[in-house]
Design a protein that fits this description.
Layout lengths: L1 H11 L7 E4 L2 H13 L9 E5 L13 E5 L1 H17 L10 E2 L2 E4 L17 E3 L5 E2 L1
Parallel strand pairs: 1-2, 1-6, 2-3
Antiparallel strand pairs: 3-5, 4-7
Length: about 130
């Protein structure tokens, strides 16, 4: 949560502030939402916030957090396969391996259209994550 709070402070110091923040996990997103509350930034009217993990708490934040859901079981299988492939490899490979991990967007109420006049502002991210992991 602290990382999300610090990220929002940094983003608010930019001359071109973001209209949406995609966080690497739900706890970071909750930190962003907490700092937004402290700075009187209205979610989602002024800022959309998206998390990643779909933890149980996400549906109970105010407003409920939009998040990316993934299967922990599928993630474990992908991680195990990656580890097994690495162990079975006879020599280190400079080529990067890629693995697919299915995700789905869980729309709740922490996202909305960008405020008028703000369309086209680049999406900024707090943390790093994608639905294709290497």
């Amino acid at each position: 949560m602290d990382g999300g709070m610090r990220a929002l402070v940094e983003f608010n110091n930019l001359s071109n502030r973001p209209t949406a923040i995609l966080c690497s996990n739900d706890m970071t997103a909750i930190g962003v939402m907490r700092e937004a509350y402290d700075q009187d930034i209205k979610i989602p009217n002024d800022l959309s916030v998206i998390g990643f993990d779909d933890i149980r708490l996400a549906e109970f934040t105010i407003p409920p957090l939009t998040t990316v859901q993934m299967s922990q079981m599928e993630l474990a299988k992908v991680a195990f396969q990656a580890l097994l492939s690495e162990v079975q490899r006879e020599a280190p490979s400079p080529k990067r391996s890629e693995y697919d991990l299915s995700t789905s967007l869980v729309l709740r109420r922490s996202t909305a259209l960008a405020p008028a006049g703000k369309q086209g502002t680049k999406l900024r991210t707090a943390g790093r994550y994608s639905n294709r992991h290497s």
